[in-house]
Write a structure and sequence with these properties.
The complex is a heterodimer of chains A (about 180) and B (about 300).
Chain A lengths: L4 H12 L3 H23 L2 H18 L10 H20 L14 H4 L8 H11 L3 H12 L4 H8 L3 H19 L1
Helix pairs in contact in A: 1-2, 2-3, 2-4, 3-4, 7-9, 8-9
Chain B lengths: L2 H6 L2 H6 L5 H13 L1 H20 L6 H10 L30 E3 L12 H25 L7 H41 L3 E8 L7 E7 L4 E8 L7 E9 L2 E9 L4 E3 L9 E10 L11 E6 L1
Classes of the chains: A mainly alpha (about 180), B alpha+beta (about 300).
Chain lengths: ~180, ~300
Amino acid sequence: MKSSQEEILQIVAQIKKGDESAFEKLYDNYSGALLGVISRIVKSDEQANGVLQETFLKIWKNIAKYDPKKATPFTWMLNIARNSAIDSYRKTKKTQERVIQNSEYDVSDIKGPMIEQRIDHIGLAEIMGKLNPDQQTVVNYVYFKGYTQQEVSDELGIPLGTVKTRVRSALIDLRKLMN
Amino acid sequence: MDTRAYISTGILESYVLSEVTDQERKEVECLSHIYPEIKQELELVQFNLEALSFQGSITPPSSVKLDILNAIKNLPQEEAEDTSRGTDKIENKDSEKKESKVIPLNADTAEKKAPVVWKMLVAASVIGLIFSVGLSYLSLQKVNKSSGLAADIKQDRDAIYTSYQNVLNREKQLVSSIDATEAQLNFVGNSKTKKIVLAGTDAHKESESIVYWNEESKKGYIQLTSLPSPAIDKDYQLWAIVGGKPVDLGVVDLNNNELVLHEFPDVSEAQAFAITLEEKGGKPTPNLEQLFVIGNT
């Protein structure tokens, strides 16, 4: 179902020329993954769908700015999705009802009321539960709350360098756990 | 360069998450060009993040797809620009500008206006230089047939890295020099900036200076268009005449083109500006027999 990296680069090249059906293929390939990323930050279904739409419109509009030499297409799209989600989350933070997540990563929070239909999440949540507490904390903040590493450093009083190395080791361990 | 150590700081992850300064970003891009192990690791980090993101996929409702495909029909694509990825949250910590109150201008830049794009051109050409240096070094390596190939390659790469650091530092200097020039030109061009020519006195007919004074921001620059070099034990000192009395504005350091300041009081009421030649370090009151230039506001 998912195209190879080469195919994706070709699709992107087509989109740069304004090819709408190539754009549709991009959507089919990546919308699920991006919606997952967005949903972890934004929490409500409706809001997440809105951010997903916004993300893809930005992708379409700004495709000329994407430089394949600098990063993979997914990385570029991931950042658009993540930044849009963070902006959206911050705008509605005051009015939105949400579960306050403290620094202890708790798997049961993820299995709470908003995620009932989303069976896809659970595999990921269980994997995350297997990280060590330090890693869980940074992953919680960076991945689920949309904090930048600098913000995590400020919030928890940990040196920025330490936050970065923990993010790195968490990503490496998560990858191992997945295989 | 210890590439493993560099990688283990987590900077590549930060790059992928778009949480790097402009400087760090350029560094990662350049180093991944020079060191294949960094390029490989960067790719791996991206693929891992992608795999993780796919692990947590959520299928969106089909209505979202329809809405998007409809919306793009009326959404024009923007044209390419020459700088970085447009949608990042990159924090730029590079620009720290020192605020000096009275600074001499370089005489020959007063007429031209330096566009901001000069800064980017300098940066771009510097990076371009690195790439071409790096690439030509790497292609030379293919010719090397000795058995110490790996060590040679590492040495060359380290040399490139050192050159790269030097060029980066040079770029920093150039950029801050352009910034300073730009600031001065903007100041001079400002509509609220007054230009006051300080003409030579009878004893020093050839001397001249110009003061640019902005009434709104209460800042000024001095341009020493024509003053003889002072002796080793002497300094030029700038004064404002306020209410008939001279007010010390500081000593001019001809070597650094900067004014060594004392407290800079509000001289919006200045009737005139003047420069005298004083003992090194200046004096609290001027020696009027050594008055070189003076001009009324």
